[in-house]
Every structure is written in C-alpha cells, then in structure tokens.
Specification:
The complex is a heterodimer of chains A (460) and B (128). With 460 residues, chain A is α/β, with parallel strands linked by helices. Chain A contains 17 helices and six strands. Chain A has two domains: 211 residues, no CATH class; 169 residues, 3-Layer(aba) Sandwich (Rossmann fold), CATH 3.40.50.1220. Chain B has one domain. Chain B is 62% helix and 0% strand. Chain B has four helices and no strands. In chain B, helix 2 runs antiparallel to helix 4. The chains are: A alpha/beta (460), B mainly alpha (128).
Chain lengths: 460, 128
C-alpha cells in the first residue's frame, strides 16, 4: 500500500516538474534549469515505475535502458545544429514506436479480450503512434535528403488517402464494438503505418514546420492514449501537454503561411497546377553584383537587416553571417536579424542556428517586430530565403502564396540577395523581389559568398 | 453497489478531465513561449513525450508473455532513445541562447525605441 502511494507520488511530482519545465521556456533565462527539472521528473517517473509490484524481471528493462542510452546519446549530443530538424523527427519516431509497441503488447496479452473503453484507448494509441512512426520517418528522410524533398503527388492521391483513412476509421469503430478481432487490430495498425507514409509524401520541404509540429502533437496524443489504456495520469498529463503544444505550433505555422491545416496536408504545394496563373520571369532581368561592391555597400550602411532562410542552414553559413555582422558593427552600423516564423524547416529553426553562432538573441526579431523597420534600413541582406520575402504574397492573387505574411525586405533602400542560382524556391514560385530595380543578386554558395564579404568589408 | 461498468466509466471520466485540463494548461503555457525558443520547445515536449517509457517498463518487466516482454524491451529501448536524445538536444540548444553580455536591458519587445538607428548599443561586441 505504502509502495503504491509512493509510486503515485513520484508520478504527481513528475507531472508538476514537466509543467514547470515547460513553463520555464516562456523566459529565456532559467529555461535550461527548467528543463533540468523536467529531466528529474522523468527520472522520478522511471524510478517510481521500477518499484512497481508487477515488475518481476529487470533483465530486459536494464538491457533496453542501456541500449536506448547508447543510441540516444549521439542523437542528442552529437548531431550538428543544422541537422536538428531531422534529429527531432527521428526522436518523434522513437517515442511513437514506444507508444505503439506498448499498445500492441497490451492488446496481445489480453488476447483481444478488452472492454470497449480500453479498446478505444488502445486504438487511439496504436493509430496515432503508428502514423507518427512512418510520418516521422518520411519527414526524417526528406529532411536528410534520403527521400525526395519535393512533394510527391500522383493522380487520385487524395482519393486514395481518403479511402485509407475511411478504412482505418471503419475498422477502429468496428473494434470498439467488438474488440476481440486480433486480425483486424493488426490490419488497423498496418493501415495507420501506410497513412503516415502517404500523409507526408506529398508535403514539400517548405511545409515541414507544420508537419513536424503536427507529428509532435500526434506523438503526444499517442502517449496520452497510452495513459488512458494503462490508467496512468502522468502519461495523460505529459501527453496532453505535448499534444496541445504541437497543435498550437502547427496552427501558428499554418497561419504564418496563410494556409489551413487541410491545405497543408492535402494541398501539396508546388504542383504544376498551382503555378499556372502565377507570374513568370520572362522579360525580366536580374542585377548581379560582385562581392566587392556588395561589401562596399554593407560597409557604409548604417542599418542592415539580415533575412536568413533555409539556404543559410543548407550552406551551414551561420558563423560567417555572425562574422559579417560583427565587421559591419565594428564600422558603426547596426545589424538586426528578421526571422520569419516558417523560415527553415521547423519552428524557430533560424533562431537556433544563429544562437549556435553566438548571435545574441536580442538581435533576433520576429516578423511583427521588424517589419516596420525595413523602411529605414539601408540594406536588407537576404541569405538563402525566398518565399518569406516574395512580394507576390502581397499583390499577386494568382500566386499560391498569396496572403502569406512576409518580411518587407523590398521596403529597404537596397536589397542584396545571396543565392546559389536562379532556380525558384522550394515552393517552386518565381520571386519578383529578385528582379526589383533595388535588388542586387550575389550568386554563389552562401558560405563562400559570406566569407568573401567578410574579407572585403574588413578591407574597406 | 455500482456495477463494474459504472466504476470504469467514472474512472474514465476522471482521466478525461485530467486530459482536458492538462491540454488546456499546455495550450496556455505554449502561447506564452516566444518564437525564439520554438525549436527547444518542440524538442522538450518531444522528450517529455517519452513518458510512455512508464508503460514500456511494465511490459518489459512484468513477464506476462514472451511476446509482450520482447515488445516491451523494444519499447523501453525506443523510449529511452527518445528521452535521452530529446533532453540532450534541448539542453544543448538552450545552452546556446545568450543575450549580449553588457546590455541586458535591450529587450527584443521594444519596437517603439528602434526608430533610433543608434540602437541599444553602437558598440561592437568584439569578443565572439
């Protein structure tokens, strides 16, 4: 009895520590300590569970903990910051594997003889879990470049997805009424795995922030469902916190693209049909600039706003960006960073990279804070960003990104764009900013261009 | 004497209340998290979600069937990867977020004061 009370107490403490840990993220100071509290919470929950009466054999547990630690350590400690989106996707996948396997094991042990309530919980757990497994795996593949980054679409895709979905829900409903059909249960798990694949296949790189957030939410809900299945409140609480957090993030990301959830999931950005009415670049010319001239302009600017995008992450050039900013500041100019909510491949991606390069976080400005500032900036330096500065979002009704809030880089007195070549962005849309009279294009790998700029600004 | 079904139902209702309230709390907290740390938030909630290890440990250790023990072992492994990887990643990111050494008052949420091009600091922080 006393043991049960102790176990419950560790779960309660863990829940409180999780909540405090998450709350600590509302302020940058103390966030690290807050997360350490959450770690202690996790440890408490594990210890509390280990002294549970029903655990009779510790060998497999110890083996699992050991193997997991050995594999998890490099994932958390060794992965470079530029690969964090993949690492988070992989981590989601492992969490979802755990939830799904627990659900399958529960069902297997009961031989399918479970009540309708438990079946509902197990169903949600395995459904959400398995679609998160394959969904995260696909997201990982796309981010890592193993699977094609471009949206993969084919005729009848939405119809197929709808059928998959309907079949899965149908089986789930049938199982709730009559749970003792193991074959159907495993079929449902299989179908959910397929849904995960088909859900992420048509999604392009630019939409990844929404997908990652959504998978985060599903992983949380799967954990919460596990809590319902085994009657454990700490799982329900942690899962609900995670589910709500991921859900809110995906809403924020969708809003930052002026698109609905449904549109992100079923719209498949960048399909040929989407660009049909959009403006093309025929008859327009770009104005290339040499590194020397660009450096000259930056050196004499009193206010520079840097707009980083996924290109900065790909070129891993965040350190060179910071060096350039330092050189400009040494000459008396101010440098600010304008961060679009969906720049990069996950929420907050640019912030993490720039923080890694030791850029103080009070130089990083959200879109709403900085947009008015572009009007008196001498130079807007766009580094590997495209859609988030595309004026078509403001004035071209036929553009697929019409209505998306963008950074007003085109309001700056002059614009320098660092770009590899003239290929359209990840959403596959032409960007008229690149053809603007005020815009100069500095072509080349972002890292090489920035290194040149740093050297040139030093010499001015 | 209430029927077992009713007892089960009332337990489920309590769990549902916990779920809804925790979800609401999570939503409230996350609305206050600045976009600056959205990535650490993502990886932190991801790590916390590894709490399904609680279920995994019981499956791996209760020795109900061989299948469930093996599935439990795999689940413990996966959950541990999730937890260890997630928390380490989060900590590594949060460690990086630094303010400027000497001017802590320059809050990023002061757009009104930014019209002055001199900004919060015209001085170059020469050290990294």
């Amino acid at each position: 009895m006393a043991r049960t009370v102790f176990i419950e107490a560790t779960y309660l403490a863990a829940s409180i520590l999780f909540i405090l840990g998450m709350r600590s993220l509302t302020r940058t100071e103390g966030a690290r300590r807050g997360m350490q509290m959450a770690m202690v919470g996790m440890l408490l929950a594990v210890v509390g569970t280990l002294i549970n009466h029903s655990i009779v054999d510790y060998r497999w547990i110890m083996a699992g903990l050991a193997v997991g630690t050995v594999l998890g350590y490099p994932l958390g400690a060794r992965v470079p910051m530029t690969s964090i989106p993949q690492a988070i996707a992989a981590s989601h996948m492992f969490g979802a594997i755990a939830a799904t396997l627990v659900g399958v094991a529960e069902y297997y042990n009961a031989g399918g003889n479970v009540g309708s309530g438990t079946m509902t919980a197990l169903g949600f757990e395995t459904l959400l879990g398995s679609l998160t497994i394959t969904g995260s795996f696909m997201a990982f593949g796309k981010l890592q470049g193993i699977v094609m980054d471009r949206p993969l679409t084919f005729r009848g895709q939405n119809a197929l997805n709808l059928m998959l979905f309907a079949a899965t829900i149908g089986i789930f409903g049938y199982l709730i009424v009559t749970p003792a059909h193991p074959a159907l249960f495993y079929a449902m798990v299989g179908l959910a795995l397929l849904i995960g694949v088909s859900m992420v296949l048509p999604i392009g790189g630019a939409d990844m922030p929404v997908v990652i957030s959504l998978l985060n939410s599903y992983a949380g809900l799967a954990s919460a469902a596990t809590g319902f299945a085994i009657g454990n409140n700490v799982l329900i609480i942690a899962g609900a916190l995670d589910g709500a957090s991921g859900f809110l993030l995906s809403i924020l990301m969708s809003k930052a693209m002026n698109r609905s959830f449904a549109n992100v999931l079923f719209g498949a950005f960048g399909t040929p049909a989407a660009g049909a009415g959009a403006k093309t670049a025929t008859g327009l010319t770009v104005h290339p600039i040499s590194a020397e001239d660009a450096a000259m302009r930056l050196a004499y600017a009193s206010e520079v706003i840097i707009v980083p995008g996924y290109g900065m992450a790909v070129a891993q050039s965040q350190h060179q960006v910071r060096e350039l900013a330092e050189q400009i500041e040494k000459r008396g100019g101010t440098v600010k960073y304008a961060i679009h909510p969906v720049a990069g491949r996950m929420p907050g991606h640019m912030n993490v990279l720039l923080a890694e390069a030791n850029v103080p976080y009070d130089r990083l400005y959200d879109m709403d804070e900085i947009n008015a500032e572009f009007d008196h900036a001498d130079v807007a330096l766009v580094i590997g960003a495209n859609d988030v500065v595309n004026p078509a979002a403001r004035n071209d009704r036929s553009s697929p990104i019409y209505g998306m809030p963008i950074l007003n880089a085109d309001h700056a007195k002059s614009i320098i764009v660092l770009k590899r070549g003239m290929s359209p962005g990840f959403a596959g849309i032409e960007n008229e900013l690149f053809y603007d009279q005020k815009t100069s294009m500095l072509f080349g790998d972002a890292k090489a261009s920035l290194t040149k700029l740093v050297a040139e600004v030093k010499n001015v | 004497m209430p029927s077992p079904n009713l007892v089960q139902l009332s337990i489920t209702m309590t769990e549902l209340s916990v779920f809804v309230l925790a979800g609401f709390l999570g939503y409230q907290i996350v609305t206050k998290v600045p976009p600056l740390v959205h990535t650490p938030l993502l990886s932190a909630t991801n790590a916390i979600c590894g709490i399904s290890i609680v279920g995994a440990l019981v499956e791996a250790g209760a020795h109900q069937t061989t299948v469930s023990t093996i599935l439990g072992f795999a689940a413990v492994t996966a959950a541990t990867i999730n937890i260890v990887g997630g928390f380490l990643m989060t900590d590594r990111m949060l460690k990086m977020f630094k303010s400027r050494p000497k001017t802590p008052t320059a809050a990023p949420s002061a757009p009104a004061g930014q019209t002055n091009p001199a900004g919060p600091s015209g001085r170059a922080p020469g050290e990294n």
